């Protein structure tokens, strides 16, 4: 029996006792090996003929070094690589067969070494030196590297079913070596890791060729010789030789035995005397051997001494075991499976199913399903296999495996015995076998010459045969099916074939080719197609193996042979042998495309194993082409994997699919990827590679699948089932990571605190923060600024170093760089965003958070013992809330809100989520299949199948972009939203608003109540509220305690403090005063931060308090969002958390009410106040309300003033109407006289002018509150403006003091408060609303408004470029400011009667009063000359003259009033304007005069009458 050409043998290192063999072989090193070494070294090697080893490009499929290292060809092929060349492979596939017939005693001697005789000599069956023989022409022929096969005689052929089983086992046990480095082949965009060798294919091919039974149409598997082995310890060895010889003769020539086949009738018999050195007598053995030499001749017998080793010798001596590598193969090969059969003659019970040509039938045996569909069929079906034969074969297999795996081999043999066995084989071959073959070839040659009358030598006649005219060969389809034609054994055609086979076995390929070619012609002429196909096959191989021949490889011979075997003879085994041989030859010539086509052509449904192996080799051909065909490689790997799977070769199927996956992965072939992954998952699960199975199914589920819902449901259930099996193996192991559903980790939001309470009746809870609110960066910044503002006020303008803005809800937009703070016993809500990528719903059950907790006492000086707890930890530390069922529909994104309840202080780390993944009943129905039926194992159900696992929440922080290093590299900061610190107990405030309005008129005052509740277990203090709009609300000043709390349910109750007035005091000012300190203005603090007047400044645990809150509608109409931030602290100071805040956003919709304009001008009446400090205030009130709001009319009930310097004195309206009513779009004009206050400047003076029956105390809450808040906001607005101006001139000097004094003259600090009532009809009921508007009068003559006017920009504005820092500052006062420096008034009679008849000139005395309005000394110049010359002016002024001085120069002290007596001269009657004097003024220490511009004042008209 042959093996794989010594491939394994040469791979053994020298130290295994075979060194002598290799050294001896090196002496006769083959020329082609030297050539290969030269090629490996890069030397140029001359090209030989096509038949032999080809120079240049070597057979890639066999290009590996003898040590199993990298290949020596230009491109290493990832296929059946071996150290053998193709020539060596073919030579080792067809070797001379020698039968071994042993006596029982001889077999017993060899069994001491746990070996049979055939097994004993097997490692030594390759000759280590060249052999010589002469051909029929007496030419010397050299035989190199010859190998023989010694087998026990088996008297019946192997059964097809057993062969199929054995081949299946051969492939099954041969797997890729662990840790084997695969070849990396780069083809285009692909980098493929492909197995460097395919040892399973080599093992299959070797076993297949060796298991082929002998047939009558060829002689390659016929025995050439027979060794008769007898032990020297037998009583009569010579007689035993005679018995064995007779038995061999009977087996060969008796008609009852058709098996085994013998080459020629006169078989060489070689007599071997086996001597046991350890127990036998050497002299006896020598004497018997001498007798044998006399009887059989020295060439026909041999004395083999073995078992030299004493069994009790030291065990430290290590003897190599060269048998193990062969026996591992032999234990699953055909011959040894039948060792247990008796060697004696047996009746031919099974011969009746054999046809006379000796070929076995295709058998449909009783094997398992794995083998029913891929039999190694040898012929057309004609019978069945006896199941007992199969059972025997299987039993012997098991015994052989047991024996081989147990005791060592060759235990009684020494290295000397090894050399003896080697020498024995050499002697047998050189002296016995080769001379016998040479003699047989000569005899056959002579017989053929004599029978056919040919020339003396067939060899010399070769040329003559080929030079003659050729008979055209018929096509294969024209030939009749005569595969059943039989030749008698002595037929000349068979003798030619026999001679050809003998020449082939001894490497005489040229002569073999000639004989095959001749026999082929004869067979074709006889239309014996089986014989012809065999001759064609071997002729092609011989042509290829001819050394140095110029004849090309006749591939068409092989094509014809394959077609004949397959289509005509129906013999797939022989066709397969042809394909295996031809494919290797084509690959050696780099004809990968032709080789792949050949391999694919032989795939069929009759044998899955064969088809799988050939498809895999075809795939390797595609990848090894000059331009690798990657997709064809992958496709055929998939086909091979499918056939491997059908053949029961699960591991090989899995490997093929994995290799193909490299091509399809990530290329958009999603359906192909799904199929491959699904198959890999199933195969891995079958092989119990559960991790691989889970990984493959995971890929199917996590990719964006294009599968229909039914298929996705099938994938999901399969995955769940596999995963469940994985978890059952390690029930106590860590929870596995689940692939579904997807979690968008960056969208995870964390909320600290309780959920917001809903509104209860009239109570409205503070909006605070909730997960339902969307993140707004602008709003978030506002809240942060408010908190910083109040913290700054609390800390007296300084921000604490450890200040951390409160963040209730953390998301991807918030600042997560610091550890967030959570409070003990307050829930932490984590919102996780799940997405179901599948078209089938997912059901998550028992969904909860996975966390790790480290307890710490932050008040202790050093931390106590730290320990980490998972979800299975103690609920006394962290309470975990689980969601019982969470259903995510197909392709749905859904959020789950999971809660934790911390019960201890420490550091919490939220790791992820843990849940049971499953699906729901009836989610999908497969095509016509009940979804409750299991897919693979019958255990699947569409509901109830779930696996428990986890998914981690891994959030990547923001990319850092601050330093140069961070900008040039990719670095990410931390995101700590899932790592809160649990701090000590803190107070918790809840705020409720009662009767809080949603809609107001602009300026409307409404009273509401605020309830503060401490829901925690510790008291709170320092309650403050901060808002960007402090003018919107007030809790009342220090005087608020005097304000009676109005009944909450009264409709017409007033929010103001009112007093019934005396009817006589109507239109006259009622005075009161108030300090700004009482209302939180002027204390140096920020007006936005408002102290909440809690009783005792503390709110105890569980306590609640209601406080009144007055609201005033903003002056501008529209929707207003007003943010309140409530700040409070704990009485006990904490290291981590210093304060807490509560947010509330009030949304108020305001509608128009009144629009008020006011101006102030100096009164010309100087007599009232002595010093002339009085002014006129004009108030213009317009009802701009639209009737949509249901307002019937507005009543102006009171006008109040508030100032430190001025006060309203009385109303000077002419109208006697007591109430001022304004319907829609009506306007009222009011005029008031204002005088300077005499009291100190500490307090504000409030003057109320009442138009109704009740006086509203404007100096009390809430009127004064809103006034002071509007005052502070007005001051803030003007301060910002002035600040921007001063910053522009920061480099320059301030105004000259003189100019400043002039400006002060036109400044006035008077604030007007207009209080009103609105009558509203709503739901057939009349409501009375009340409100107030503020107008701040700052400049004399300048109009002021109740709210700033919007400046309408023109449609097109010229673009102006300017530099603000260079803006010039006017050094002169404005004309308006100058005109207010000196106030003038003329006193004269309104009419004057004069008799012009008596006296032509009329003189009228006129007094000019001059009042210095400034605080400085003023030089005044009066010019009485007329300046106007226009006709209109002359007409108005008339012609009169001033008598006396035309110019006066005076100096007026601060606030001085000076009276100047003038005389006007008139010449006739008329109406004259006396207002012609021009007054100029300048400050005493200034040079420039400023005209006071009194021309704009009222004309001073006088009537001159004649008597």
Describe this protein's structure.
The protein has 1507 residues and is α+β, with helices and mostly antiparallel strands. It has 34 helices and 56 strands.
Total helical elements? 34
Which oligomerization state do the chains in this entry correspond to?
Answer: single chain
Average pLDDT for all residues: 77
Biggest sheet layout: 11 strands, antiparallel
| Low-pLDDT windows of residues | 1-81, 332-404, 454-482, 862-868, 923-942, 1040-1052, 1282-1295, 1364-1370
Termini separation comes to: 170 Å
Shape: rod-shaped
Radius of gyration: 59 Å
- The portion of residues forming beta strands comes to 15-25%
Tell me how many strands there are.
Answer: 56
| Percent helix | 25-40%
Based on helices, strands and strand pairing, what is the structural class? Answer: alpha+beta
